[in-house]
Write a structure and sequence with these properties.
By secondary structure, the chain is an alpha/beta fold. The protein contains 16 helices and 15 strands. The chain is 36% helix and 16% strand. Helix 14 runs parallel beside helix 16. The structure holds 4'-deoxy-4'-aminopyridoxal-5'-phosphate. The site of 4'-deoxy-4'-aminopyridoxal-5'-phosphate has 14 residues, from helix 5.
Length: 440
C-alpha cells in the first residue's frame, strides 16, 4: 500500500461542518478504502456504517468505476459544457430517464446536491414564467428539511443553525411542519402510523397566499440529515394530491434517498408517487466524482421549448455540467448497481436491518429506533443542558472502536453501502450496542 504522510500543520484547510479547533487537536483521518471499510492513518480498519456521507452506495474503490474514470480522463478529460456536447453526458441522461419513474424524462446535470436543489428551484420558478404564470414565485419547504447549503437551499431548508447567520435569504418562502413525533411514533418500523394530517398544513399555506402565487413545494421524501425522519403513512400522497390540485410543482429532494437507499431505485418508487422534479446527487456517481442530476417532467421541459429557436431556453448551467469524467463515473456506477442488484438490496435485507436496529431498543439512552430500506436512526436522550454531546461522544467512541456512524443532534444515523452483508450489520449493531453501554 502507498505510504501516507499526514501533514503536521492542519490549519490551512477550514473543514466543512466541522468543529475545526476540536478536530485538529485529535484528527480522524482516512487514507484508503475498499468495499465496506476505510483504513485510518494509523492503519486500523473502520466499517463504513454511513456509505461515506450517504453516497458510496456500491462500496469503496470499485474497480469498474475507477477504471471508467481513468479511461475517460485519458481519452476526453473535459469538453465545454455550453453549446458543445460529448456522448457520455447524453448516454448517462438516457440511462437516468430509463431508471427514473415514468414521467421524468429530461435531465439537467450539476456538481452536487446543493447545486441540484438550486437548479430545481430555478426550473420551477422559470417554468411558471414561461407558461405566463409569473405570479407563482412562492416556494414551500419544511422544518428540519436539508437541501444543501446554497441560498435557495437554506431558504427552503428548515435547519435553524444553517439559516440564522445568513441574512434575509430568499423571500416568499413558507415551511410545512416537520413530521417527527416521538409521542405517537416512537420505535416505528418503516412508515409511522400517525401524522398524515400534517400534510393538510399545505392547504392552509396555499389558501393563505392564494394558489396563484405558489410555484413549488420541496421535501425530502425521507428527511436524512436531520435524523432519518420517515414520512407518516399517506403523508406524501396528500402532498401530491394538494400540489396537483393547485397547479403547484412537487419537488422531491432525493439526494440521499435516490439510487437504492430505500430498496427501490428512488423513494418516488417506494412511495408510488411521481414528483414533477427530482433532485439527485451522491449515489449517482457512488460519491466518487462530484455530480448531481435533476430530473424533470416532459411537461416542464417542453414548456421551455416553445419560444423562438435561436434563443437559449434556460439561462442556467455550470462549467462542469455533464463533465465527461463525472458522466463516465455515473454510467459505470449505474451499471454496477444493475449488475449487482444493489438498487433492490434494501428490500431484500430490509427486515434483517430492521430487526438488528430494533434490538437496540432498551439499551442505555435509546428513546427511538426507526428504519426504512437500508437507512435508520437511533435517537438518544440528550444530556440535560448539553445537547448533541452524548451522540457525539458515541460517534468518537465508535470511530475508535472501528465503526463509522453519523450523528446529528442526539441522533445516530446509519446508511451502510448497499453491498452490506448480514455479518456487517451484526457487527455494526453490536459495536453500537457496546458504545451505548459505555457512553455517559
Ligand atoms: N439535499 C439533501 C437531501 C442532502 O442530504 C444533501 C447532502 N447531505 C444535499 C441536498 C446537499 O448535497 P451536497 O452536499 O452534495 O451539496
Amino acid at each position: 500500500m502507498v505510504a501516507h504522510v499526514v501533514p503536521n500543520d492542519l490549519s490551512a484547510f477550514w473543514m466543512p461542518f466541522t468543529a475545526n479547533r476540536q478536530f485538529k487537536k485529535s484528527p480522524r483521518m482516512f487514507v484508503a478504502a475498499r468495499d465496506m471499510h476505510y483504513t485510518t492513518a494509523d492503519g486500523r480498519q473502520v466499517l463504513d456504517g454511513t456509505a461515506g456521507l450517504w453516497c458510496v452506495n456500491a462500496g469503496h474503490c470499485r474497480p469498474k468505476i475507477t477504471e471508467a474514470i481513468q479511461r475517460q480522463a485519458a481519452e476526453l478529460d473535459y469538453a465545454p459544457a455550453f453549446q458543445m456536447g460529448h456522448p457520455k453526458a447524453f448516454e448517462l441522461a438516457n440511462r437516468l430517464v430509463d431508471l427514473a419513474p415514468d414521467g421524468l424524462d429530461h435531465v439537467l446535470f450539476t456538481n452536487s446536491g446543493s447545486e441540484s436543489v438550486e437548479t430545481a428551484l430555478k426550473v420551477a420558478l422559470a417554468y411558471h414564467r414561461v407558461k405566463g404564470e409569473g405570479s407563482r414565485f412562492r416556494l414551500i419547504g419544511r422544518e428540519r428539511g436539508y437541501h444543501g447549503v446554497n441560498f435557495g437551499g437554506i431558504s427552503v431548508g428548515g435547519i435553524v443553525s444553517n439559516r440564522k447567520m445568513f441574512g434575509t435569504l430568499l423571500t416568499g418562502v413558507d415551511h410545512l411542519p416537520h413530521t417527527h413525533n416521538l409521542a405517537t411514533n416512537a420505535f416505528s418500523k418503516g412508515e409511522p402510523e400517525h401524522g398524515a394530517e400534517l400534510a393538510d398544513e399545505l392547504e392552509r399555506i396555499v389558501t393563505l397566499h392564494d394558489p396563484s402565487t405558489i410555484a413549488a413545494v420541496i421535501v425530502e421524501p425521507v428527511a436524512g440529515s436531520t435524523g432519518v425522519l420517515i414520512p407518516p403513512k399517506g403523508y406524501l400522497q396528500k402532498l401530491r394530491d394538494i400540489t396537483k390540485k393547485h397547479g403547484i410543482l412537487l419537488i422531491f429532494d432525493e439526494v440521499i434517498t435516490g439510487y437504492g437507499r430505500l430498496g427501490t431505485p428512488f423513494a418516488a418508487d417506494y412511495f408510488g408517487i411521481v414528483p414533477d422534479i427530482m433532485v439527485t446527487a451522491k449515489g449517482l456517481t457512488n460519491g466518487v466524482i462530484p455530480m448531481g442530476a435533476v430530473l424533470v417532467s416532459a411537461q416542464i421541459h417542453d414548456a421551455f421549448m416553445t419560444g423562438p429557436d435561436h434563443l437559449i431556453e434556460f439561462f442556467h448551467g455550470y462549467t462542469y455540467s455533464g463533465n465527461p469524467i463525472a458522466s463516465a463515473a455515473g454510467i459505470a456506477t449505474l451499471e454496477t448497481y444493475k449488475e449487482e442488484g444493489l438498487l433492490t438490496r434494501g428490500a431484500e435485507l430490509g427486515l434483517y436491518w430492521q430487526d438488528a436496529l430494533h434490538s437496540l431498543k432498551g439499551e442505555p439512552h435509546v428513546i427511538d429506533v426507526r428504519n426504512i430500506g437500508l437507512v435508520g436512526a437511533i435517537e438518544l436522550e440528550p444530556i440535560a443542558g448539553a445537547p448533541t454531546k452524548r451522540a457525539f461522544s458515541a460517534f468518537v467512541k465508535a470511530y475508535e472502536s472501528g465503526y463509522l456512524i453519523r450523528t446529528t443532534g442526539d441522533i445516530i444515523a446509519l446508511s451502510p453501502p448497499l453491498i452490506v452483508e448480514k455479518h456487517h450489520i451484526d457487527e455494526l449493531v453490536d459495536g453500537i450496542r457496546k458504545v451505548l453501554r459505555e457512553v455517559e
